[in-house]
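My main concern about presentation is that the manuscript never shows what a single data entry looks like. An entry of this sort, consisting of the sequence and the corresponding backbone structure tokens, reads as follows:
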Amino acid sequence: MFVIVAVVVVGVVFLGGALLGVSVAQNQASDRARRTERDRRVSAIRTEALISQA
């Protein structure tokens, strides 16, 4: 009986860790996408400013 409870507890811990890992990975990916978009926008603004100076 004790072994079954221990296996279930360990399984729940691993499942929780896996779900948390997926959540963290999704957050990092969305942050990276936001940063990339912001960098592109800033780069376009700088390029436009340089072109308009010429």
